[in-house]
């Protein structure tokens, strides 16, 4: 009932000229009053308030709404793609970031660039279980795209309404509530460039019964999506980490043929004199007589992904005023990613002069200065193949709800139970360290050249396969809210709402130590099992006060109590003033918080490689190894970094101001501007590796060496409370409707976000780092982002031309702080057309990245992919797609 009313309201608003997609609020002057003969408008429930509104537009908070039919026509096949069109969503983290980083392939939203953990994601106004890995955000892959009716984005803090995580904003995915009939949709996406990355999707929707006439509705939706692997070597701009003419030289010191270091202090590589073995192994450009390895050529730009989702809902009318609902959501996502063969360095891989492969023994070329002393070897056995990992994520949620009207109150009651499970497994390329140490030690394996048949057989038997990590997160909750008009004041009705929530969260992390401990390259070799739980109770209230005609004040407050860290009280005040039919002014102030997740507190500590190669500041200061230090592991090498949970972490706190104006000088033109200012303190994060290695004197307590201080075991970067974040900017929107009866109807819409400031501290009371318009530590913040859309409709044909633009920024500085250059802007165009043949058949076809523009070049080294930044750009290039829907 609520969603039917809202859909009708949206249709009226769009016909009257409101730009919901850019967060422009429609002006009440456009709606008929009852005195003019219109029927009383039904109340609807929208994101950001617990009081049911007369129109989704009548709110003091900026809201963007994207209709499912619109993003389907534009060929946006995943939730991640949909959110990438929202300018205030700074990053588009998805499956590409799973390559080498253990994210499980999840997709994330990140409003205002504050982090995905500060963007609250809801499904029909209620929380979902977070992804078990890191437990800080919902995996967008579990959202059933085919079931969506619309996506609502609240571009303001909302902890006073929803509690934790709503600092950057709220994204509410609203599904169809009542559907009758059956339909099937099939779509395919094919890049024009060679390689992979093609996508296929098929979904089925069936609905039986009508709530209004039959008193019930049964809805079922099944969705399947698949995207194939795209390798780095399939795109010229990303195929290598070695482009010295552009300042890019991302290589590893663990290579094939292997580098060595002797007890007498001699370092080298037997193949160096002959030029190493390109294209993977190349001479060290620093002049050292060893080789470097271009690992970029082995990674995926896009891994193989599959998602299967089912949503079932049964709704039943109970009398005239009540509706009971039972809903079940199941989602399964798999992610198969590849990185370079295993780096075996610093694990005690030693060759003696009894090996037939010792340099100068007859097979391997001699190296001057060696006198038969043992060699410490740094080696990648290429014949074992790429390391391949499989991540499987599953989500199940059961929801029982009741809503309706009783005693003059509009109420909504829900009981839910959600379980998120994830597991990771070695499927190829990982090797048992102990067997490799034994094989090199006894002279069976050749780290400097080709293997004998016996060596190849030995390596095949040394492969490590199986599940090494399993995680589960459970969340059970009961919630209620009720609202009504308490009284009628001279200026209008006084709206009131109250509600409460009780939730129990549990997290459990299990490491297969017998398996994981055998491979140092897994990152989980010394990880321990961890678990944690908490109870959460909350009460909240909201009051909407009409002060004078056309001026309303909205007050809200929420009190949350957590059994593991304490309580939090968060108020909000918002104003809405419409001095004329053409002008609407709005503003708000609110406080927010983010509770540390169970992973922040209890996540297992793991030791992995840094994203960048670094010089050990103690053993290789200035790039020159000190006497006795092995340059193959101390100089220009990926170092070990240890991260994980910290039970001492405290909550983040925030305050947000916003102020905006909506102008509608004519019925065909709507303009908006919303200023926002956010201040966050005690941010929860791990210290960036760039900071740890860039300021040794400051962070030397985070360096842990072996007893002899000849090797850096790891740097410590566990989760902790850092300093403040200050950011501000403005959201701008425009919708211009040009109606031409003979030529068709035209619409031009632009939605953009300008970030004036983004500064942060890496520690309390420390200096602020400027991030807006430049790459700082781990990522850039774009000054300007926009999405522009030109639409044309005539009869059964709809055409859309759209542009997505991200401004340029200063590139990632080198170890000395020197900025190598400017990263260019990223602008892509898309063209789509839909033909609706009749009520049963419609076909959409289009082209993404119409001009086939490559992503701008960058030297960033935060991700495994090189030459561009996969967090903000698309490596596919021009891509054709077609989508057909048949209803029966």
From TrEMBL:
Domain TonB-dependent receptor plug: 58-170
Chain segments annotated as coiled-coil in the UniProt record: none
UniProt-listed SUPFAM superfamilies: Porins (SSF56935)
Highest taxon, organism lineage: Bacteria
Region forming the signal peptide: 1-31
Membrane topology recorded in Swiss-Prot or TrEMBL: Multi-pass membrane protein
Chief place where the protein resides: membrane
TonB-dependent receptor-like beta-barrel domain ranges (all copies): 395-850
A Pfam short name: Plug
UniProt-annotated location(s): Cell outer membrane
UniProt keywords, alphabetically: Cell outer membrane, Membrane, Receptor, Signal, TonB box, Transmembrane, Transmembrane beta strand, Transport
Family: Belongs to the TonB-dependent receptor family.
The name this protein goes by in its record: TonB-dependent receptor
């Amino acid at each position: 009932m609520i969603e039917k009313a809202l859909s009708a309201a949206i249709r009226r608003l769009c016909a009257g000229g409101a730009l919901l997609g850019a967060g422009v609020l429609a002006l009440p002057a456009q709606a008929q009053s009852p005195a003019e003969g219109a029927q009383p408008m039904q109340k609807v429930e929208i994101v950001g308030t617990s009081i049911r509104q007369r129109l989704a537009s009548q709110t003091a908070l900026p809201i963007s709404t994207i209709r499912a039919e619109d993003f389907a026509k534009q060929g946006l096949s995943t939730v991640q793609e949909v959110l990438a069109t929202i300018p205030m969503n700074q990053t588009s983290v998805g499956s590409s970031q799973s390559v080498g980083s253990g994210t499980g392939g999840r997709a994330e939203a990140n409003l205002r660039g504050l982090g995905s953990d500060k963007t609250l994601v809801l499904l029909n106004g209620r929380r979902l279980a977070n992804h078990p890995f890191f437990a800080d955000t919902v995996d967008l892959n579990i959202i059933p795209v085919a079931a969506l009716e619309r996506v609502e984005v609240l571009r303001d803090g909302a902890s006073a309404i929803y509690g934790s995580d709503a600092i950057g904003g709220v994204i509410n995915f609203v599904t169809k509530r009542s559907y009758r009939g059956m339909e099937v949709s099939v779509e395919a996406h094919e890049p024009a460039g060679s390689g992979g990355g093609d996508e296929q999707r098929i979904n089925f929707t069936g609905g039986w019964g009508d709530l209004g006439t039959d008193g019930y509705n049964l809805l079922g939706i099944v969705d399947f999506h698949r995207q194939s692997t795209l390798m780095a070597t399939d795109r010229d701009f990303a195929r290598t980490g070695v482009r010295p003419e552009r300042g890019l030289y991302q290589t590893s010191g663990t290579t094939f043929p292997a580098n060595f270091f002797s007890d007498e202090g001699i370092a080298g590589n037997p193949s160096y004199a002959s030029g190493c073995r390109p294209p993977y192994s190349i001479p060290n450009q620093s002049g050292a007589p060893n080789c470097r390895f271009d690992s970029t050529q082995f990674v995926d730009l896009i891994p193989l992904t599959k998602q299967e989702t089912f949503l079932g809902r049964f709704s039943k009318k109970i009398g005239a005023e009540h509706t009971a609902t039972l809903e079940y959501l199941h989602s399964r996502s798999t992610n198969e990613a590849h990185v370079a063969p295993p780096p075996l360095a610093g694990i005690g891989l030693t060759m003696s002069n009894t090996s037939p492969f010792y340099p100068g023994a007859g097979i391997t070329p001699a190296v001057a200065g060696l006198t038969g002393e043992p060699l410490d070897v740094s080696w990648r056995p290429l014949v074992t193949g790429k390391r391949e990992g499989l991540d499987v994520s599953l989500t199940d949620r059961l929801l029982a709800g009741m809503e309706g009207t009783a005693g003059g109150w509009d109420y909504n009651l829900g009981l839910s139970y959600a379980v998120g499970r994830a597991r990771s497994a070695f499927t190829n390329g990982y090797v048992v360290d102990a067997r490799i140490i034994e094989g090199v030690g006894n002279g069976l394996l050749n780290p400097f050249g080709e293997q004998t048949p016996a060596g190849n057989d030995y390596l095949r038997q040394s492969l490590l396969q199986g599940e090494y990590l399993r995680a589960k997160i459970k969340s059970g909750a009961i919630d209620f809210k009720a609202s009504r008009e308490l009284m009628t004041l001279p200026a209008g009705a006084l709206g009131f709402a109250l509600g409460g929530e009780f939730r129990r969260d549990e997290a459990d992390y299990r490491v297969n130590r017998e398996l994981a401990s055998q491979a140092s390259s897994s990152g989980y070799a010394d990880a321990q099992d961890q678990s944690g739980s908490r109870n959460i109770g909350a009460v909240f209230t909201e009051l909407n006060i009409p002060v004078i005609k056309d001026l309303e004040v909205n007050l809200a407050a929420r009190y949350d109590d957590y059994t593991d860290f304490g309580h939090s009280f968060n108020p909000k005040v918002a104003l809405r003033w419409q001095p004329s039919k053409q002008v609407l002014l709005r503003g708000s102030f609110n406080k927010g918080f983010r509770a540390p997740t169970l992973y922040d507190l209890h996540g297992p500590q793991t030791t992995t490689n840094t994203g960048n190669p670094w010089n050990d500041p103690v053993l290789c200061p200035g790039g020159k190894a000190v006497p006795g230090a092995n340059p193959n592991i101390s100089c220009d090498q990926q170092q070990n970094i240890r991260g994980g949970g910290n039970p001492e972490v405290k909550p983040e706190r925030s305050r947000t101001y916003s102020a905006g104006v909506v102008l509608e000088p004519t019925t065909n033109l709507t303009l908006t501007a919303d200023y926002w200012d956010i201040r966050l303190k005690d941010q929860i994060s791990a210290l960036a590796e760039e900071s740890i290695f860039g300021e040794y004197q400051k962070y030397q307590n985070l360096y842990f060496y072996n007893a002899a201080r000849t090797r850096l075991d790891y740097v410590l970067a566990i989760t902790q409370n850092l300093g403040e974040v200050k950011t501000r900017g403005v959201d701008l929107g425009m919708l211009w409707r040009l109606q031409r009866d003979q030529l068709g109807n035209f619409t031009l819409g632009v939605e953009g976000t300008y970030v004036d400031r983004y500064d942060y501290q890496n520690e309390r009371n420390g200096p602020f780092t400027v991030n807006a318009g430049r790459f700082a530590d781990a990522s850039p913040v774009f000054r300007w982002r926009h999405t522009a859309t030109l639409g044309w409709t005539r009869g059964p044909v709809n055409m859309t031309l759209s542009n997505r633009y991200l401004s340029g920024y200063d590139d990632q500085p080198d170890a000395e702080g020197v900025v190598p250059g400017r990263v260019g802007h990223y602008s892509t165009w898309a063209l789509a057309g839909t033909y609706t043949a009749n009520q049963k058949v419609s076909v959409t076809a289009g082209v993404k990245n119409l001009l086939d523009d490559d992503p701008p070049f960058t030297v960033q080294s935060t991700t495994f992919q090189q030459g561009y930044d996969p967090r903000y750009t698309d490596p596919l290039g021009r891509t054709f797609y077609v989508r057909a829907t048949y209803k029966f």
